[in-house]
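Hi team,

As requested, here is the filled-out complex form for the 4AD run. I kept the field names the same as last time so the parser does not choke. Let me know if anything looks off before we queue the next batch.

— J.
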Amino acid sequence: MDKISVADARKAEAVGRHVRLQGWVRTRRDSKGGFSFIELNDGSCQGNVQVVAPGELANYEAVVKHLHTGASVSIDGEVKASPAKGQATEVLASNVELVGDADSETYQLQKKGHSFEFLRGIAHLRPRTNTFGAIARLRHQVSMSIHQFFHEHGFYYIHTPVITASDCEGAGAMFRVSTIDPGDAPKVDGKVDYTKDFFGKPAYLTVSGQLQGEAFACALGKIYTFGPTFRAENSNTPRHLAEFWMIEPEMAFYELTDNMDLAEAFLKRIISDALKFCMEDLKFFAEKLENNKELFAKLENVLNNPFKRVSYTEGVDILLKSGKKWEYPVAWGNDLQSEHERYLAEQHFKCPVILYDYPRTLKPFYMKVNDDQKTVRAMDVLVPGVGEIIGGSQREEKLDVLESRMREQGLEPEGYGWYLDLRRYGTVPHSGFGLGLERTILFLSGMANIRDVIPFPRTPGNAEY
Ligand code: 4AD
Ligand code: MG
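And here is what came back:
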């Protein structure tokens, strides 16, 4: 008796095999003919396998006819060609064992449509729904594609720290990590004395692995990080999380255009792999989500056309000339909001846009200053449906310029001595970017809210589970 997955049991080539299937009951339907249909799911694919449980089973009356939605079962049987439409196979059970019951009075995931908002409140059970199973499989595939892409292109995967004293983005949106009890914190001149804290100085959850990534790129050439990052911004939007996963390649001897070329090839690979390996789940998203009928057209379009490369200045011009009424005002020097980014990608260019050369005042200290002294070699990749999905830049490789940029942004160069060493010793032009994993999943699936594409979302006011 082979233990096989539901995904394998659904394939025509499984016909004739005697197998064991283990999973959870989605529904049970008792037929007048004295047998029951059990829709079984084990997370291996979007679909269920239909199990036919004949009335002759010894425990038919006592157990099978009382199987509830959500109950776990172990079923032995033979895979048969199915006479029903829409499925190649079904399983004729010779033994049905109840492993764990699910009380239909209290189990919250009964077989009916649930809003995503309701499901957020039962984040431990939502992996059992079609949508969240599909999201989990898609996240897995995208993660694998990312590792494969970089591995094939000669990048090393570097594990950068989660706890750090450096504020990479210089935005001050960091979560402090401390073992000091606020009630009796040691103080000097009325201020908490962090020299007495665990790390001997203030430490935080990282907002980005970039700075440490640069140290490795300036030794190994091409590296990437892939890990959780944290932002204590109080932004309650469908595109922001307090904890999200970021992929950050960093390359020595790369200029901004090399960086753009890499970002474009990288995103295209993620999309083409998703189309290759996640078709069933993508079809589900296209059919089941509102306003998502164009999902495949959108993905194919992105895959088959070059990204539009436009300077920030040109982008602002387009927005000003659009005649649109914006919620946030457009002016050279203002940061672009999601409405502006999406207009450029969705309505104006109708394709991904790489916006580059942003005003220096809008971007972090590490970005290379252009000759015009007004802009930096930044690049944001904006995609339809999401807006910014990638943020990156060429890095400032000159020590003196970097130090003055730090001061300009209110950072003490003394606190970044190790980072400045990378410019003191063997400095090179280098570039990199960060891709938000959850925004990538939003883009690929057409899901509307970032809270629904990560297993356990962390947002202001919510650290449940
Ligand atoms: O543009 P960001 O802030 O860039 C950096 O952190 C750089 N250090 C990256 C680099 O050059 N190595 O963030 C990069 C991406 C964004 O484009 C977005 O996709 C995602 O990370 N991101 C978020 N995703 C979810 N919630 C948030 N609060 C996010 N902030 C950024
Ligand atoms: Mg950004």
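Two things worth flagging: Residues 380, 388, 391 surround magnesium ion (ligand 2) (CB under 6 Å). Residues 2-100 form a domain with the OB fold (Dihydrolipoamide Acetyltransferase, E2P) fold (CATH 2.40.50.140).

Thanks,
J.
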